[in-house]
Amino acid sequence: MGGGARELAGYLAALAGWMAALAAAVLPHWRQSSYAGDAIITAVGLHEGLWMSCAAQSTGQVQCRLHDSLLSLEVHIQTSRALMVISLLLGFFGIIVSVVGMKCTKVGEEDPVTKSRIAVAGGVLFVLSGLCTLAAVSLYATQVTYEFFRESTIPVNARYEFGSALFVGWGAASLSLLGGSLLCCSWPAKERRGQHYQRQAQPSTAREYV
């Protein structure tokens, strides 16, 4: 795969990862009611996310409510919120920086070495964004797992388990890490520097023959 094609593939993968991370942050399905056990004790399915909680009736009616207070939220929710916001900001700046540094764009093409370094910087931002998404989703999933398996008087089918947003977040982190890694491969190689030196040396040799 050529350098330009590799950069484009990495950019598209990272962009898809950023969009998936945005969807995961907004979705209220980070955890949902568990239906494990012998019987379902309620006809209402509960879903909770970083910003709101929802109740889905068996009739198909869904009611959502934003979390009332920020300070009253559990620590893992506040931490996951902060990590997802940081991830989206890093990914947003990575999108802008990568566009400037990619070979398929015309911006700064007179200096290919600097342009490649800018693409690498965009790749680093995407990698950091993916790590933040991975940390947020994994932290939340760890808390859900702990609450599900800890000894409690709450029946199993009244507890919470993983929601679909967690799997979307893991996929988003994987795409961001993959795309950022591909963009980081744009670092100028030694061969390019050697070709640059040869081009500078060609006019002097021509003068000597004249």
From TrEMBL:
Places the protein is found: Cell junction, Tight junction; Cell membrane
**Primary subcellular site in the record, as a coarse category:** other
What sections of the protein cross the membrane?
Answer: 82-102, 118-142, 162-189
Domain of life, per lineage: Eukaryota
GO cellular component terms, A-Z: bicellular tight junction; plasma membrane
Q: How does it sit in the membrane?
A: Multi-pass membrane protein
Which Pfam family name is an example for this entry? PMP22_Claudin
Q: Which PROSITE patterns match?
A: CLAUDIN (PS01346)
Cite a single GO MF annotation: structural molecule activity
This protein's UniProt keywords: Cell junction, Cell membrane, Membrane, Tight junction, Transmembrane, Transmembrane helix
Give the matching InterPro entries: Claudin (IPR006187), Claudin_CS (IPR017974), PMP22/EMP/MP20/Claudin (IPR004031)
Tell me, in a sentence or two, what this protein's role is. Claudins function as major constituents of the tight junction complexes that regulate the permeability of epithelia.
Give the family, as the similarity comment puts it. Answer: Belongs to the claudin family.
PANTHER family, per the entry: CLAUDIN (PTHR12002)
Name of protein? Claudin
Lineage of producing organism: Eukaryota, Metazoa, Chordata, Craniata, Vertebrata
